[in-house]
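U., I forgot to send this yesterday:
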Amino acid sequence: MVQQVPLDLVQLHGTEPAALAQQIPVPVIKVFHVDGAFSVDADSELFQTSCHSVILLDTKFAGTAQQGGRGVSFDWTIARRLADQGVPFLMAGGLTPDNVQEAISVGKPWGVDVSSGVETDKAKDPAKIQAFIDNTCE
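Result:
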């Protein structure tokens, strides 16, 4: 499918193994769902991705198949441990214009990903989007 569309990049957001990224012929963003038991140790699945993949950390919800998209943050110090190892990553999960600056300061991500955090009544809110952008640059 990647060649048929053609896609520039693919995001894997499910429970598929990280090694699947090695079989995709374009850069891959692999989402890892973070909870209190999440590991950033060297033997973690984080380090089993191919060299062309990007890591995205998002919140994990116990007892449900739906991950992310709920506006709930994870413990950003977990992300910081990954940053301290020199690993570039994107960070998502409960980010809003009000907390993105703190999230960046604590987690030290390479970039951030937002969706529901810039919505009003389940629609993208231009003022919130602008505030989010402004607050990432401060």
